[in-house]
């Protein structure tokens, strides 16, 4: 007989309740137990990374956003590994990354040049108010002295977000009305269900926002 139900009951007694946030409808009634990552001497790891357990019958999948009901903090499910006993899953070990940004994803479409060779770029909203983690590249979670020298003056960031969002290179990540980043590179194979994106400051013109699209006008040379 599996001990999964016993572990689930224990999580309900000593763990923390969370909500799985989904567009199709939030899922409640699940509990987790978490601890700080083993590399607690590194401030970034201590602040943003958690290890924990989900019950054997959790509905959470990698790429989901879960919100801790007490603290209100939101986390991206980065990894979900089944723990087995007597060939049965009795719990899942998980890794959670705390989300620090709420952003919109915009995609450009260039229109035909007009009679003055001006090109209009239409910006379509692909996803709104997504929760994600944006940080400087970790390089093994700490910069070496050579890395620090090489990165001076270069504004490069990494974003962690669910693969299901369908973000591609050249998309725009809008954090605020005056803060935009361009998706330079997509790294889809580092994690299952979560993509890593290389971001740089987006200088592709000033936009005028409408309800569903934004417009940028530039002149071709």
Word description of this protein:
By secondary structure, the protein is mainly β. Helix content is 11%, strand content 52%. It is built from three helices and 14 strands. It has helices at residues 4-14, 43-48, 145-151, and strands at 16-21, 27-36, 49-55, 65-68, 74-85, 88-98, 101-110, 118-135, 156-162, 172-176, 179-187, 194-201, 208-209, 213-219. A six-stranded antiparallel barrel has the order 1-2-3-6-5-4. The longest helix is centred in the N-terminal third of the chain and has 11 residues, at 4-14. The model is unreliable at 140-153 and 207-221 (pLDDT under 50).
As laid out across the biggest beta sheet, the strand order is 1-2-3-6-5-4
Shape: elongated
What's the tally of helices? Answer: 3
- Unreliable sequence segments: 140-153, 207-221
Q: What Rg is obtained from the alpha carbons, in whole angstroms? A: 21 Å
State the helicity in percent bands.
10-25%
Instruction: Name the beta content range.
Output: over 45%
Q: What is the correct CATH architecture of the largest domain?
A: Beta Barrel
Largest sheet: 6 strands, antiparallel, barrel
The CATH class of the largest domain is identified as Mainly Beta
Order of helical and strand elements = HEEHEEEEEEHEEEEEE
Number of domains: 2
């Amino acid at each position: 007989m599996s001990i999964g139900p016993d572990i689930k009951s224990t999580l309900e007694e000593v763990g923390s309740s969370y909500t799985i946030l989904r567009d199709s409808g939030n899922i409640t009634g699940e509990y987790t137990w978490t601890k700080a990552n083993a590399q607690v001497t590194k401030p970034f790891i201590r602040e943003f990374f958690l290890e924990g357990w989900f019950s054997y019958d959790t509905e959470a999948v990698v790429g989901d956003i879960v919100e801790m009901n007490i603290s209100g903090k939101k986390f991206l499910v980065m990894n979900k590994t089944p723990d087995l006993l007597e060939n049965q899953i009795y719990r899942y070990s998980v890794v959670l990354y705390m989300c620090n940004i709420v952003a919109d994803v915009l995609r450009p479409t260039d229109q035909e040049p007009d009679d003055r060779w001006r090109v209009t770029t239409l910006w379509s909203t692909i996803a709104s108010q997504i929760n994600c983690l944006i940080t400087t590249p970790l390089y093994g979670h700490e910069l070496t002295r050579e890395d620090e020298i090489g990165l001076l003056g270069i504004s490069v960031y990494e974003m962690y977000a669910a693969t299901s969002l369908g973000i591609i290179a050249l998309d725009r990540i809008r954090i605020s009305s005056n803060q935009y980043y361009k998706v330079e590179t997509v790294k889809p194979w580092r994690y299952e269900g979560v993509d890593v994106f290389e971001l740089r400051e987006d200088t592709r013109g000033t936009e005028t926002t409408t309800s569903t699209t934004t417009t940028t006008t530039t002149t071709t040379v």
